[in-house]
TrEMBL record:
This is Phospholipase/carboxylesterase/thioesterase domain-containing protein. Coiled coil: none annotated. Residues 13-203 form the Phospholipase/carboxylesterase/thioesterase domain. Gene3D superfamilies: alpha/beta hydrolase. It comes from the Eukaryota. InterPro entries: AB_hydrolase_fold (IPR029058), PLipase/COase/thioEstase (IPR003140). It comes from Brassica napus.
Amino acid sequence: SRTVRRLNFGTCYVIEPIEIHKATIVWLHDLDHIGRRCLEPLKDLNLPSIKWICPTAPRLPVTSLAGQNATAWCDITKVSESMQHDFESLDSVNSYVADLLSTEPTNVIKGVGGVGLGAAAALYFASSCAFGKVQIKQQMINPQIVIGINGWLPGLTSLQPNMNNAFGTFNRAKLQRILLLHGTSDDVVPSEFGYKCAVSLRNNEFPTMFKQCGGNHVMTEICVWLTQTFGL
């Protein structure tokens, strides 16, 4: 087992639903951003039954930024299949996201999503939930909605062993719905790596859709997917 790193998270911003509350999604920003920057794009989706929770990451020294401090969900090196992962910080983020969802009504759909490093943290949260490693009030949590833009799955190489390590992992994986979107011109996270993560998730029973798109098409794809898949 790993020690969970204690992190000091920043300001959390919330978009309240203006119609019947059907879903709550925790949305995680990219490296060196803040939660407030996510508000306008999410409002523009015009999905009035969703509550969006947009936390701000702690400030950490980031290896890929030559050790400079930045808002980051974890430390990060150059993105690749063989990259090192800051699992201690990611486990702390898992606990934080679970706490944010713990006060939401039991009858609403729970979800997590993000951009870049935030997408990586969201996918790590989702996979950890499938492994049975994330709990709210001693009850396992399992997000039904998972969205990642230009992201990847930390610990990709250990996905299959972890899936076979605990009871109920494949059943929990099947209950998640994952949408992964990737720009073709992303020079930080190659789309080929994003696609490989999607294939691995799909091969391990996570219902996963992967699409390459950019610009305004990204938010349109999210809006259509949430509407058609969940009636939101």
